[in-house]
Design a protein that fits this description.
alpha+beta; 240 residues; 25% strand
Length: 240
């Protein structure tokens, strides 16, 4: 039997070392392809993406809230296209729905939920969104749409001082003779309610939507959820 030469033995050792190092690495790389979506928010240093960390979680709204698997997109409602000025302002804002940083929470006992989107960028980009949000409130706040069976309105919504600036409207849909201006009447007359708030915090824009259906809507939740969203963002991005 021919014994391997020293060169052959050396080559065999090199192959063995490479094999031992590459197979574990391949396993790690293969495993990374199977990591659930949320884990992708961690960077190479193992730290969580600050924007994702700033998103609302069920505990922020109460024990009766849980995560849901879809977000709402209230600005795509046809009512926002009823006037040219409103349609133009909203068109500049709907890009926020393409952000990869979003979440959705729902009430476990009634048809009510919160959707949140976070958009971060240059001062120029966020200022453009802020101008569009201001134009949206100005141009859409007096829309009323009546049909034989329904009435829809968009009105300005006051949330007080939040972040650097806040712009908000409310959409209400109900029966033709409903008094949709007064949220106190919603329990018996409302079919759909959506509050939409855009809040600037430094170079980040929070888009918060609070929706409810068939009387399942708690108006004060919009303000409290917005306040918590701002607080979480400020804590996550202290230098923003």
């Amino acid at each position: 039997m021919k014994h391997p030469s020293q060169a052959e033995r050396d080559a065999s050792i090199v192959v063995e070392v490479i094999t031992k190092r590459l197979f574990p690495l391949a396993a790690v790389l293969a495993g990374s392809l199977l990591v659930p979506g949320p884990a992708l928010s961690e960077n190479v240093s193992g730290q969580v993406d600050p924007l994702r960390a700033a998103l609302l979680v069920p505990e922020d709204l109460g024990s009766e809230f849980a995560r849901r698997d879809y977000t709402t997109k209230g600005l795509l409602n046809p009512a926002f296209t009823r006037t040219k000025a409103c349609r133009k302002a909203v068109k500049s804002l709907t890009a926020v729905y393409r952000t990869k940083v979003s979440t959705a929470l729902e009430h476990t006992d009634r048809w009510e939920g919160i959707s949140e989107y976070l958009v971060s960028g240059t001062p120029r980009k966020i200022s453009a969104l802020e101008r569009a949000a201001k134009a949206m409130v100005r141009s859409c706040r007096k829309i009323t749409v009546k049909t034989q069976g329904t009435q829809e309105i968009i009105r300005r919504l006051s949330l007080g001082r939040l972040g650097d600036s806040v712009y908000a409207v409310k959409f209400r849909s109900g029966f033709p003779d409903s008094d949709l201006e007064r949220d106190a009447e919603l329990a018996t007359e409302m079919m759909v309610a959506i509050d939409i708030a855009l809040i600037r915090v430094g170079n980040t824009m929070i888009v918060l939507e609070h929706d409810g259906h068939v009387g399942a809507f708690d108006p004060p939740l919009t303000r409290s959820a917005a306040q918590t969203a701002v607080m979480r963002l400020q804590e996550a991005l202290p230098g923003d």
